[in-house]
Amino acid sequence: MSPGTGQLTGLIAATFTPLTPQGELNLPLIGPYIDYLLEKQGVRSVFVNGTTGEGCSFSVEERKQLAEEWCRQGKGKLDQVIVHVGCLNVKDSQELARHAASVGADAIAVISPFFFKPTNAEALRMFLQEVASAAPKLPLYYYHLPSITGVNMDAREILDGIENQIPSFGGLKFSAADLRDLGQCISYCRPRGWSVLYGVDEQLLGAVVLGVNGAVGSTYNYVGSAVSSMLSAFEKGDVDLARKLQFKMQEVITFAISLGFGLHVNKQLMSEFSGLSMGPPRLPLLPCPPDRAQAIAQKLRDVLASD
Fold first, then answer.
1. Residues assigned a catalytic role
2. Dist. CA 146–CA 278, nearest whole Å
């Protein structure tokens, strides 16, 4: 958070969940993972058990173990540990919210249920309110991800009057490509002191221009340092350099998409760059072919090394 404002700012790594080759939690890897983020990428905050972390593929008990270990290992090292607690049912979400508060999380985030979907913004606000009530002292962030949830209403509509229902509301993670809706969210959140965090890594610069406070993304696990350089260039007024660096990231992502770029590939890329074995994804996702991740990793190295 930015000192004195209570706002989340800067780059936040959406963490992968380390698994053993047998597909079980590999909790001892979280300590070295945190050290890698701090020492090699300069990333000081994490978003745990989200999409990148395959949160919805794990049991409530597994998610508790992960949240507790990230909070324990991150204490005194990380600036912020945000724990995603969204589930398909409100009771599990409440249980995870209470647990996040008990283990020292700094904030919670909640995605919309996506099997039985809320039919309107009020229904979703009521769901978020019930989850927030289980951890009223933790800031709650709405996690807007319509491409996965199928909840396609504008995020701005969901924000309307939400402070009257959720006193602990802190902002949102906006993971959609609609910059119009994003701009409207920023316009609503800024005077209320809330954070808007962007979640589409390959077009972060456009969101920065609109005024987002920070960003949550999977690629910041292994290219956080490069993206920080882009943000620094923009802050210093060197828009040409910032644009050049964003174009480089887009070139790599476009190449990755042409080969088939999904979470399973992204997780293997983290293993390639960090030297830490993240393990396979959990079914129904399948492991990434090693040659695919290696090709993308080499493309990224070549692009970042070019003038």
1. 143, 173
2. 27
